[in-house]
Model the fold of this input.
Amino acid sequence: MKTIDLNADLGEGYDDVAVMPHISSANIACGFHAGDAAMMHRTVALCVAHGVAVGAHPSLHDPQNFGRREIEAAPNEVYAQTLYQIGALAAIARAAGATVHHVKPHGALYNMAARDRALADAVARAVRDFDPSLILVGLAGSASIDAARTTGLRVAQEAFCDRRYRADGSLTPRSQANAVIENVDEAVAQAVSIATRNEAIADDGSRVRIEADTLCVHGDRDNAGEFARHLREALERKGLRVAAPESC
Done:
């Protein structure tokens, strides 16, 4: 039976309670784009209650723009900020009897590291230096994945259920119309296609190959809980097992 991970970006002030029962991994905001210590604590507790893997979701320091604005940042700065955020979540997880399982950068940092090898190396080094057993989640086929593997980390290649792709496998920028798939049925269909056939339809109508270990549900979208439920049911109907990647 093929296994696929279903992850969600949580701890950002949205309805985590509705999403949590349907996912296998959570990426928890660490305060640089959203969330704070109390919210991190509540989200970790939800993960523990539902048996969901705890992940850090570090960002550039940009709460005013939800971490989605690209800011010039030196690799050493990205390294330090990433390490800082993982450490903050790890302390809260430890107090709750849990451990950090994976790291997934957020927003602009995620996109910048996907194409900029120097930044990708900085993120990967921060993860490795904190704990080399952690899994690094990155855009499938991107510089983030290459950097993580070079650093000796295990990876989870990620695909997006509700984001449109370009023909080269990159994400259509949010600044463009229709970059987000709002229709639930259409987004579920794309996710199932990626999980079962390693394929999505790009924004130009071409077919793009995407090999993914994990699928992302955005916790900040409308009806995120309902979407996550429909998606998990659809994946399981196709015979897939939904589970987080096994940790070391």
User: Anything to note?
Assistant: The helical segments are 16-19, 37-50, 75-95, 107-115, 117-130, 143-151, 184-197, 224-237.
